[in-house]
Known about the structure:
Elements: E1 40-52, E2 62-67, E3 76-79, E4 83-90, E5 99-101, E6 125-131, E7 136-141, H1 146-149, E8 156-161, E9 170-179, H2 194-198, E10 206-209, E11 216-219, E12 224-231, E13 238-241, E14 248-252, E15 255-260, E16 266-269, E17 274-280, E18 288-293, E19 301-308, E20 338-346, H3 350-357, H4 368-377, E21 383-385, E22 399-403, E23 408-415, E24 421-425, E25 430-435, E26 438-439, E27 445-446, E28 448-451, E29 456-462, E30 467-473, H5 476-480, E31 484-489
Parallel strand pairs: 1-4, 3-8, 9-12, 11-19, 20-23, 22-31
Antiparallel strand pairs: 1-2, 4-6, 5-7, 7-8, 9-10, 12-17, 13-16, 13-18, 14-15, 14-17, 18-19, 20-21, 23-29, 24-28, 24-30, 25-26, 25-27, 25-29, 30-31
Amino acid sequence: MSRFPMPALTRRAFVASAAAGAASVMLPLLQQPGANAAAVREVRLRAAPGRVPLVPEPYGVTPAWCYNGAVPGPEIRVRQGDRLRVEVENGLAEETTVHWHGVRVPNAMDGVPHLTQAPIGVGERFVYEFDAVDAGTFWYHPHQRSFEQVGRGLYGPLIIEEHEPVRVDRDVIWVLDDWRLTKSAQISDDFGNMHDVHHNGRVGNTVTINGRTPDSFAVSKGERIRLRLVNAANARIFGLDFAGHKPIVVALDGQPVTPHAPDGGQVVLGPAMRADLIVDMTGEPGSRASVVDRFYEGLEYRLVDLAYANAPLRERAPDWPITLPDNPLPEPELENASRNEVVFNGGMMGEMIAAEMGAKIGPGAPGGMMGGMHSMMSSSSAWFINGVAADAGSHVMKPMLTLARDKSHVIAMTNATAWHHPMHLHGHSFRVISRNGQPTPHRECQDTVLVSPREKVEIAFVADNPGDWMFHCHVLEHQAGGMMGIIRVA
């Protein structure tokens, strides 16, 4: 049954999926000639308009923005320790960049316009080059007007393989995204509208896996799959229920964690976040099991069915080791760490929440609660970090924090707003050490942490990568509305 909406751009309509073959869930590997011959891998990416079959017939193809003519862009897969050289050509009618999300790159390679590089002009090229230091699941996307460029399809997966990967039957990537489509399967042009900016961002009405709306994903009883999930959506948060299967989380944002079942049985991914799962296929031959997104209460929908082959691969899944080797991350020393407080304000209902929590209210809300709301709704500045809304258009941003290089630091983040914020720090991975004062059970290393309304989250890391680094909400409309700043490591 088709779940492509007709057309309904309301929250109750953002459900997804339509009939497509299981093969469309698999991403093709970007082929590299002489893969074992050299440590330097060269890739060419061209950002340009294209046409892609997001939804099945009778809707036809959808105009989108693509890397190498596809959405997602090509899977780039290298080995840990390789050097990656990527030549990016800009075939768009506007400037662009490429950010290597979660990869600890040198500052000049981070892809932030007017901060780490000049934007790539129309018809121009830029070469990114860096070492693949950490193994894991990463992705790439523009940082220039990302609320529209990512929203039109510019993104792709970057996989850095371990020297000795864990043994599985298949290594599979699902790049998750949602799209705001009209009833003729065109991308709605209402990017950056004030309602999205002041609320929970651009939530779409059609969800895709690897650029398609698949009905099923083919599996076999007894099969073990390493499933790499990437949330490339502007704003949608996924909470995936695997219908009686018991996925085990082995990595978050590319960094290994102690293998564990997801909290509450749901794999929750905010925008830009990733998770590596080990999923054993325990269903009976010929059966189907639905993977359901349950994050938004009352708005649950079937994402895709696990469709079992008629013959099993084996009677039960193998008992192979699943613990991933650690990456070379420095461990923060909490007893010697500096402490830094960060408060998020703004958005619709922001003054009410801030007042309840006793948190500082940003300067965009003068004249009382109602006056502040009217002022914010007529302004592009909707969100504040420590009372300051960033103005990316000015290209002049002073550091919000300056951290001593090679020292340990704790950042305590308080979300005094009514909305979730996936907070992303460039150039580093950090440990999530507490939530609302309670130590986290897995002390996971991440580069993007989802902070719930009224929640306080503490992260800790060693600031070992020098430069000016972006720190921002990865709900891309929140970033555009001011929720970003610069953390200087010097």
